Amino acid sequence: MECFHCLQPVPKGVDLTVSYKGEKHAVCCAGCQAVANTIIQHNLDAYYQHRDERPLETPLLPDELKQLSLYDHPDIQKEFIRDAGDNIQIATLTVENITCGACGWLIEQELMRLSGIRKAVVNVSSRRLQVHWDDGALKLSEILQALARIGYKALPFQPNEAEHQYEKQRKSYIKRLGVAGIATMQVMMVAFGLYFGVGGDLSESLQRFLWIVSLVFATPVILYSAQPFYAGALRGLQASKLNMDIPVSIALLGAYSASVYATITNTGEVYFESISMFTFFLLTGRFLELLAKERALRFATNRLTLLPKLAIRETADSTEEVAVRQLKVGDVIRVKPGETLPADGHLLSDKAQVDESLLTGESRPAAKIKGDKVVAGSLNQSSPIRVEVTEVAQQTVLAGIIAMQDAALADKPKVQQVIDKVAGYFIAGILLTATVTFLAWWFINPEHALWVTLAVLVATCPCALSLAAPTALTGIIHRLNNDGILLKNADVIESVKNLNTVFLDKTGTLTEGKFQLITKLDHTNNTHNDALAAGLESHSEHPIAAPLKLLSEQPMAFNSVENYQGLGLEGIAEGIRYRIGSRAFIQQWHPQYQPNGEHQVILANESEVLAEYHVDDQLRPEAKETITTLQQQGYNPVIVSGDSKDRVERVAHSLGIKEWHHETKPEDKLSLITDAQRNGHTVWMIGDGINDSPVLAQADLSMTFSSASDLAQTSADVILMGESLWQIETVIKGATKVRSIMRQNFTWALLYNVSILPFAAFGFVAPWAAALGMSLSSLLVIANSLRLYKK
Amino acid sequence: MSVIYALIPVAIIFVIIAIAVFFWAVRSDQFEDIERQGLNILMDDDKPKDADNKEQESDNDAKR
Q1: Contact flag B36-A123 (C-beta cutoff 8 Å)
Q2: Nearest Cβ partner of A216 from B12, B18, B36?
Q3: How far away is chain B from the Cα of A194, in angstroms, using its nearest Cα?
Q4: Which of B10, B14, B28, B33 to mutate to test the interface with A (most CBs of A within 10 A)?
Q5: Strand ranges (E), A474-547
Q6: What InterPro entries does the database record attribute to this sequence (chain B) (predicted)?
Q7: In this structure, are residues A344 and A397 in contact, taking their beta carbons and an 8 Å threshold?
Q8: Residue pLDDT, tens place only, A277-299
Q9: Of A251, A299, A496, A632, which has the fewest beta carbons less than 10 angstroms from its beta carbon?
């Protein structure tokens, strides 16, 4: 049975319904029930009739809603809100789980019901909402809450400069494409008149007239629509690098000028239809490539939602909330459990447990005592703490890592695209054959020299060749996208060829990144033990305690619980004294006791040991299989982790990885990877933490998960949305496949150009044959690339 | 066939008009969200708001 609202299966034992049109429909959770009721009550149920039948994410839970009020803070709002005067504010938000046009309609309708909303426009393809509202009548958090009530999570995000560029480019491409399309149709129509004659005969003056008409239509195509190619060619020449735009420009401008000359002097042949169609095909290819890239970039940007970064600062008599960037050295801040430290500083509280795993890769929380240094970006695990700020913003350890990442990105080895290598040979080929043809004909028959050379130029026009790469590229971006893999650039296609080393982070990449109960061994009644362990551990904030708290639904009530730092907990239940904790802690009571296997958390009372547990950061279930497959294909997996030696070693052994590096700092990881690159290895890096971001930027190709830190996501080339290591294999397969398709495209395109060349050089290729051959060869390349879209 | 000398220039003018309209459409953001537009005709004014729903609406507005 499917949930009425989100279309996901209704779990067993859930008995919730909504009534709609007098019938009861089952829903999967209270969240969906609330959302469905809101939609129906607000008379927006047309949504249910017109939406796509695709399952939605589960709606936002109510307790997540509380944090939304943080977005009303003026310091936070400064980062993403535009003031349009008259109290009207404009913000662009990214909306998760928009699946179809009906979602867009639903959101707009719901928002327009709020008084104070001036305008709400949803863009379904980019999953964005632009909203204009009256700040006096409505708060931003109320808008976000209204959206949450109908099941959408909308958040502000960090805008991306590159995206703005893409948008401008896309608009100009649409215009150029429109002009090229409309004009090419006219030129072709006239060309048919020229091929077959108008009304049976084609007088000299009528032919001249039709040539002039073709000239009129072809001119905007060549002088306006084809501009991106000339610009690209100029850029290539300035940087003294050959690219495909150069032969394209030579062919276009050469054939155009010769045809204009023919029209004016009324001699020879004109090729207006060939070059117009050529421009149109090529522009289409480029445009599709642009769209695919823009889409990938937008999705990546949408993921970088702005989280409200506020800190609690102590004032003379109380506390105040300030934006993190306003903190100054010497301020005293308070950090609640579960919150991220906003700045580096000294601990003022007696003790603290902080999770620095994102920064260092160390998976166990670090114990800190009064006066110790704590760093921005680490997570407070224990009780509320007070910190005196010593470094802010640009000086923090975190900012240092970001700077390292930027430097690495600039240093990253640039991949030369195959197409640019081909371009070099091609230009030489065209110029050579054109010159030879012209000279040969000049001696044989000077009258025909120009027209035969023109035919050669049109025949060698690299239309199919220029389409070979972009169409394949668009195909791979699309294909991987469908598999939940986001490709930010095309480097993957080139780097897969020489790939031999895959660097992997441990915590959060090979492992799940959170503690789980792996095995347990009960020496006595297990339900009772579970209740005891859960009851006692509920007094602990230690991350190892978290999975044990879930052992029982009816935890035993404990009193006079005492926390022995670094050892464990002791407490009394039903008059008996119990302990849970490390081996050393239990051995104080049972000196002879040795735990079995890797069990490291032990439950005991004073007379006997009751149970033992192995709690650890578990390997991802697919890790073993993925690593084995990589090894079989001849790639060398290497672990680079910031974690301690024995933990890294254990993971390496269980996965069969021969090379590993432990306790590496971000700069160590970076030097490991640059060394490998210097030794001629092509290195891929897969990681998720802030500490991984510099290496991700440096690697030839880098991947991260969509749950990874923002920083890792900005520096990675590929984002694995499916959260599965197995997707590495999908990327390798996809890239290999696209390489073979591209090779076929190149072979065919070159074959066509080379085989038509002799005919052109001997003057056998009429304008209609050139146009036909070019179209057919291009269509073949496109059809071949389309195979990438199929599974 | 001489009519063609008049008709083709007229066609050129039509093409120019078509391109002008197209440019205007691009500039007014009509190509921004192509996925969406096909559905719009289905959604709005699908059913008249009945008295019952209006009551609920004002109810909700009051709560807000």
Answers
A1: yes
A2: B12
A3: 14
A4: B33
A5: 485-487, 499-504, 511-522
A6: Cyt_oxidase_maturation_cbb3
A7: yes
A8: 989 988 998 898 888 878 877 77
A9: A632
